UniProtKB/TrEMBL annotation, chains A, B:
Keywords: Amino-acid biosynthesis, ATP-binding, Histidine biosynthesis, Hydrolase, Multifunctional enzyme, Nucleotide-binding. GO terms for molecular function: ATP binding; phosphoribosyl-AMP cyclohydrolase activity; phosphoribosyl-ATP diphosphatase activity. Signal peptide: none annotated. GO terms for biological process: L-histidine biosynthetic process. It comes from Cucumis melo. The gene is LOC103503018. This is Histidine biosynthesis bifunctional protein hisIE, chloroplastic. It comes from the Eukaryota. Transmembrane segments: none annotated.
Length: 282, 282
């Protein structure tokens, strides 16, 4: 079913060096058997090809490929991939799709440099859909927005001429956006009593006292066995005040997650590093 | 291009009551012009149909439809939708797809009751892909897992017979999973020095002292102008310790987000509630 020129990428002698990077689980660095180093060798172990043969490619040899931000979970874009595109993505660790309109592979960022660096590739239960879990370098959309999904159908129903630029964000990032908007509004003339968020944004002393207070209250839910619901509610308070403090200092929550990912992916990476380099010849 | 029986859903007299719910922005409650209340009237205002006419339906009258957890951002499943499926999703607020194998609509959960309740529908820049941002009731996958994406290609490459059940989670939820695993490991016999996470899980006093200490350190980054990078790092420390405290009390971070969503979606909802019920006749 898969008809594009993947065979041309397969060489008779395959030698791979298996290495790890702090932010990426796998990368195959092709080592050339010939002296012609200008040849791009995208070949992959036969077992990878066999695995991909097990995917349910549609009648055009494609699966749906959705790129998702590994840290925030934001869906960045959706395209299609043929076997060659998945092989290229798996080997070069940059999200690559098959353009149905141009009938060719395209690596997101090949002209804009806004690549999506791949951390993992996930297959669904039916094997006909994949997620490219990756880290975008710059905006994912050709329009310059972080994600291609920035139009709410509900908003369009309210206002068919407007309704744009509401990014499809999950709760934490929607809240982060709301706080950013409140901060932006502070630059213009304000009437009436400011909202709680604005008061916090304007008063570091108040904000810090609230962060310490809410952290203490979260601890008390444990110390005094106040129950699950109270814990969730108090944790929500702490998270909200952390988001405000990040907004004050122009730090995105995504940057916090980058720190966490780097710290907590260490164990797996260290485990891999302790392995002898994998050199296969088949 | 869209060929299924949507026209049959259109009635000459359309009366809608426009109402709001705490967790959902829109819901059209059809009010029947006839006395036959058993007839399911899925008709929507002409403007909604016109909006959907503007989508780029493929040669089979479909767009890709991806269901995403509104709170965590986890991609739950991916299917396809025809116009009728999007209309039904928009009106009934439950993720509905078009089954290509059975050539019929199917609402996720119609047999299992594991519905995905819709909060928003997002269109991409090309208008050929949509996100159903929703809240799953129970597991989204027919296999019983939270998401259909539980197979890592990288893991399969390492172990073609295994490599399953690594959910496609973004950083925060991967970390939450790691902490849960550490907690589960505590039930079995432990040798050697326990990890820091395990020490925290075993000692509420230590955990609470760390939560208070890290919250204080985050505040100091603001009070002492320690810079953006230090702020992100200290916020990461607080978030990690919050996750451990949630694990101790068997609370998922998703529950924390539910609290935040309920609080911060109030303003928009209240604004809508203050409007007179929208009754249209066309």
């Amino acid at each position: 079913m898969w008809t594009s020129g993947c065979q041309s990428l397969t060489f008779s002698i395959r030698v791979y060096v298996y290495s790890n990077f702090s932010s990426e689980k796998h990368r195959w660095n092709p080592v050339f058997a010939s002296t012609n180093k200008s040849v791009v060798d995208l070949s992959l172990p036969a077992k990878v090809e066999r695995l991909l043969d097990g995917l349910k490619w549609d009648d055009k040899g494609l699966v749906v490929a959705t790129a998702q931000n590994v840290d925030t979970g934001t869906i960045l874009m959706q395209g299609f991939a043929n076997k060659e595109a998945v092989l290229k993505t798996a080997s070069e660790r940059r999200a690559t799709f098959y353009s149905r309109s141009r009938s060719q592979l395209w690596t997101k960022g090949e002209t804009s440099n806004n690549f999506i660096n791949i951390h993992d590739i996930s297959l669904d239960c039916d094997r006909d859909s994949i997620i490219y879990l990756g880290k975008p370098v710059g905006p994912a959309c050709h329009t310059g927005t972080a994600t291609c999904f920035y139009t709410s159908l509900d908003d369009l129903i309210d206002d068919p001429q407007g309704g744009k630029h509401k990014l499809a964000l999950s709760t934490l990032y929607s809240l982060e956006n709301i706080i950013s908007q409140r901060k932006a509004e502070l630059a213009s003339f304000q009437t009436g009593k400011p909202s709680w968020t604005k008061r916090l944004l304007l008063d570091n002393k108040l904000l810090c006292s609230k962060i310490r207070e809410e952290a203490d209250e979260l601890c008390r839910t444990m110390e005094e066995n106040e129950g699950r619901s109270r814990t969730a509610s108090e944790a929500a308070d702490v998270v909200y005040h952390i988001l405000v403090s990040l907004a004050v200092q122009e730090v995105k929550f995504e940057e916090v997650l980058e720190h966490l990912r780097e710290r907590f992916s260490q164990s797996g990476i260290e485990e891999k590093k302790n392995r002898a380099p994998k050199v296969t010849k088949d």
